[in-house]
Amino acid sequence: MFDFNTLLTPELFFVSLYQTFFMVGISLFFGAILGTLFAVILVITKPNGIAEHKICYSILNTIINIVRSIPSLILLVSVLPLSYFIIGTSYGTTAAILPLIFFVSPYISRLVENSLLEVDNGIIEAANAMGATTWQVIWHFLLPEAKSSLVLTYTTATIGLIGATAVAGTIGAGGIGDLALNYGYYRFDHVAMITTIITLIIIVQIIQTIGNKLSKSIRNHHRET
Amino acid sequence: MIELKRVCKSFYHNKQEIKVLNDINITINDQDIFGIIGYSGAGKSTLIRLINALEKPTSGDVIIDGHNLAKFTHHEIRQMKQKIGMIFQGFNLLESKTVAENIALPLLLTGVPKQDRDKVVDELLDFVELKDKKQAYPSELSGGQKQRVSIARALANKPKILLCDEATSALDPQTTRAILDLLKRINQQQKVTIIIVTHEMSVLKHICNNMLVMENGKIVEQGNVVDIFQNPASPVTRKFVNAVIYDKLPIRILNNMLKHDINNIYRLEFLGSSCRHSVLSDAIMRDCGKISINILFSNMIDIQENVIGYMFVNIEGESNDVEEAIDFLKRKQVRIAKLDKDGNYV
């Protein structure tokens, strides 16, 4: 039956929560930058793109596909040795950040690519007709027009990343996933397990709600001014 | 002056060549309003995109003010584009930016300081009569207002040429009229050469001086708008002209006539000067009422102060009196044709 004896202390819980936010925050920051950069390169170098470049496009496209096809757990453990070279350890929260960036960048770049492809071709044509440089097309036309869609993209990416940090918990990264596995699963600590699940649900709900509201307000900002 | 010399353009699809433009030769003078008409797929949108280098010709030359675009560097092409405005059927405004920000975009790209940008935006908003919409977003505007914003945006860099790609096709007739009047004002006040691509003859009729008709990537006819309306040479052109002016008696009226055994039906073609004289009453008067002329149907249009049109009449009387009346009308420069049994006018 249900066992209410638990090793979970408030301190342990908050430390885990902090570790999760730390991992998500840092890897999201770098992942978003890299992912967006890759996506922009993909969109402009694609066939009939504004700076068409077959070789550049196919290399980047293939790399992203390869990384995306590796399951997150396998990807995380395979990149860990690289963490050892760079930060001197392959264990702990900090060590998990590099594999997480590896995981999330291609993921974000595919999502951002879709957002950018949604931008009406007519806008790009208008930019071209104005004599905009490639950089100007990206900065003044492509990204602003995709803004509302991009917010949803980063929201989805953040939630995906929270999932990935939970997986990273199983390889010693700490955080809330670690709590669920090491306490909830291995020690049959039901309270730890349920607390973890509820916490994850709440976090994801909050992030999704904020993302939706933000995206909607960007889409309709004229109604509020 | 814009010149296209022996221009051909092909696209390749699955390594198969699709000829979109074939041997195009055009000269467009400064300050002209030039119309390009054709059905969809005729190549007219590709043609207009050659002028601002959005498309490159496969062969032939595009020459603007004596400069061959093929000899331009990337940088020079960009500078040239900044002096050519373009408006589109779908307006292509940025939904994420306000009206003022949209209009300021071309200036932002050329590095004009903010103060000067604001000044130009205010002037342009005044010109297109949208001052009160300065801080609005495109989604709050009607189609006509959106096109006004995109016109203002196209004029921001004070271009010498304005390209209009089906700019009124998404608008209702009244809004179309207002936009065309605005384009005419731009042409007259700012001395801008305007090139209009359309599939609506009424657009050409309203503002163009010169025009060409395209079919399957070729120019089938080109010249002065009034001349082409009066004498459409090719079947396509005739179809387009008939969209705004009937050169045949509407079929129901015709059937009604035939039912009542009325056969002496003539088509009188009024062009230019013949409209200003009282030819019909003269024709009746000179024969002291030996013939009667009954107007069955008539339609006239005005093209830049010229009236052209067709009148369908039934002339009754002794056959030689009728002949004489017809000769008289011909002398008065009215082109006249009789409706034969097969429904053709000969």
TrEMBL record, chain A:
UniProt membrane topology term: Multi-pass membrane protein
Family: Belongs to the binding-protein-dependent transport system permease family.
Cell compartment(s), UniProt: Cell membrane
Keywords noted in UniProt: Cell membrane, Membrane, Transmembrane, Transmembrane helix, Transport
PROSITE patterns in the record: ABC_TM1 (PS50928)
Transmembrane segments: 20-43, 55-76, 82-104, 151-171, 191-211
Keyword Cell inner membrane: no
Protein name: ABC transporter permease
Organism: Frischella japonica
Stored Pfam families: BPD_transp_1
Residue intervals of the ABC transmembrane type-1 domain: 17-209
Domain of life of the organism encoding this protein: Bacteria
Keyword Membrane attributed: yes
UniProtKB/TrEMBL annotation, chain B:
Protein location: Cell inner membrane
Keyword ATP-binding attached: yes
UniProt keyword annotation of tRNA processing present: no
Organism, scientific name: Frischella japonica
Keyword annotations from UniProtKB, A to Z: Amino-acid transport, ATP-binding, Cell membrane, Membrane, Nucleotide-binding, Translocase, Transport
GO molecular function: ATP binding
SUPFAM superfamilies on file: ACT-like (SSF55021), P-loop containing nucleoside triphosphate hydrolases (SSF52540)
Identification of the protein by name: ATP-binding cassette domain-containing protein
Pfam families: ABC_tran, NIL
